[in-house]
Design goal:
It is built from seven helices and six strands, in the order βαβββββαααααα. The chain is of the alpha+beta class. The protein has two domains: 88 residues, no CATH class; 103 residues, no CATH class. The strands form two sheets. Strands 1-6-5-2 form a four-stranded mixed beta sheet. A two-stranded antiparallel sheet has the order 3-4. It starts with 25 loop residues before the first strand and ends in a 7-residue tail after the last helix.
């Protein structure tokens, strides 16, 4: 019998629970409407496609295209080796914050798309494997370990969100639930389909408290 049975999930790594809202000028925004590569490429063709209406930092109404950074997702068939994203800069001289815009399917801080990660940590209901290359064993272990850690700070965040549905979700699971349990509960409540479960919750967490990470 495992000595961890009946014990609360371990605490997550500090990188998963540190907010960046007050420490950085600018940052990453996630567009929850863009869930696949085709839609992303269409949006990217238009300089205004991802442009925020106002700077999230100062509220200024003009942002200019700053550059097109590259992301290099690995291991998923149909996903190119390089995916361009767009970065805007606030036109207010006293601000100058820069904002990278990510489509929902790209995992922030991971060298994979969310679908690849989900196939490893939540295989139930996922479509047949489409990974182009095997996932290294140490990477799988790291993902599984993170997914098994405590979701306490995320549960509290949802409970304090001011949204009735999210408050109900938070009250329906234990405060010491793991990230895996929270993701499954969120998918059940929102009826999110397999292959989009991690992406949906990660985007929600980032929207509520920019910088917090699901994985």
């Amino acid at each position: 019998m495992s000595p961890t049975i009946g014990l609360p999930p371990p605490d997550p790594e500090s990188c998963l629970v540190q907010s960046r809202v007050s420490r950085f000028k600018g940052g990453t925004l996630i567009d929850e409407d863009i869930q696949d590569l085709e839609a992303h490429e269409r949006r990217l063709c238009d300089p205004d496609g991802y442009r925020p209406g106002r700077c999230p930092r100062c509220g200024h109404g003009v942002l200019h295209v700053h550059c097109y950074p590259e992301r290099h997702p690995r291991g998923e068939l149909g996903m190119p080796a390089v995916v361009r994203i767009i970065q805007y800069v606030c036109a207010a001289a006293e601000c100058g914050a820069t904002w990278r815009i990510l489509p929902t399917f790209l995992a922030r801080h991971l060298w994979r798309v969310w679908k690849t990660v989900e196939r490893v940590v939540m295989p139930a209901g996922m479509p047949g494997s489409a990974v182009a290359t095997p996932i290294p064993a140490r990477t799988e272990q790291r993902w599984r370990a993170r997914f098994a850690t405590s979701a306490r700070i995320l549960v509290v965040l949802l409970a304090a969100s001011g949204g009735v549905a999210l408050e109900a979700l938070a009250s329906g699971i234990a405060l010491d639930a793991s990230r895996a349990e929270l993701t499954a509960a969120h998918a059940d409540v929102t009826r999110t389909a397999p292959a989009a479960r991690l992406a949906a919750l990660a985007e929600l967490v980032h929207r509520l408290e920019r910088g917090l990470r699901l994985m």
